[in-house]
Write a structure and sequence with these properties.
The protein is of the alpha+beta class. The chain has 4 helices and 11 strands; from the N terminus they run ααββββββαββαβββ.
């Protein structure tokens, strides 16, 4: 009987194991993180292809304070931004110039968007396929019949962390790709916020 329970547990853990659950388990409870984020995009407009590349260091403290420093393109290197959620203050710095604005960035909206995205994966509105460490999410055929170019999300995970998110369509070479390098969770990020 013990062997039967062990076998059922083993089969269930293999059947339900996927990179999304691994990632959710890793990030649960983490409020502080840092990463280097690369944003690549290719869009077509008026039959012309346009490419975009941006590399930033992103640091989040307590899911409400943000630090962002642009690393590429070279024209924007050194541009830095801080946002403090409690005081609703936005600081920016470039070439020795420092500015400040009082603005309300709806941080909760971004968090709600990610929660909605993960809830969407659990509905019949999407087709979820998992191949190794890559999860592809496509809209169900009932929704794609009305869409000109249905959006496909492809997420790649590495060692339990998200490595890349790619947003694309089946019918073109257009895409937006977010690549996370050196994602670190639960680290001390206070040094990025001491100057403000």
């Amino acid at each position: 009987m013990l062997r039967l329970w062990f076998a059922l547990l083993l089969i269930a853990s293999i059947a339900f194991a996927n990179p999304i659950f691994d990632f959710a388990e890793r990030v649960a409870g983490s409020k502080d993180f840092a990463t280097t984020l690369s944003i690549d995009a290719r869009v077509l407009q008026d039959a012309a292809e346009h490419s975009f590349n941006l590399i930033v260091d992103l640091v989040v403290r307590n899911q409400e304070d943000f630090y962002l420093e642009i690393k590429e393109p070279v024209e924007l290197v050194g541009l830095k931004f801080w946002y403090y959620g409690r005081t609703k203050r936005f600081y920016f710095e470039s070439l020795g110039y420092v500015g400040i604005e009082n603005i309300d960035i709806p941080v909760g909206t971004f968090i709600s968007l990610f929660e909605l995205l993960f809830k969407m994966f659990q509905t019949p509105m999407t087709i979820l396929s998992i191949a190794g460490n890559t999860v592809t999410v496509k809209p169900a055929p009932i929704f794609t019949s009305q869409a000109k170019e249905p959006v496909i999300f492809r997420m790649t995970f590495e060692d339990g962390f998200i490595k890349q998110i790619m947003i694309m369509s089946n019918n073109s070479d257009e895409f937006v790709k977010l690549t996370f390098e050196n994602l670190k969770l639960g680290i001390d990020v206070d040094s990025f916020f001491k100057n403000r």
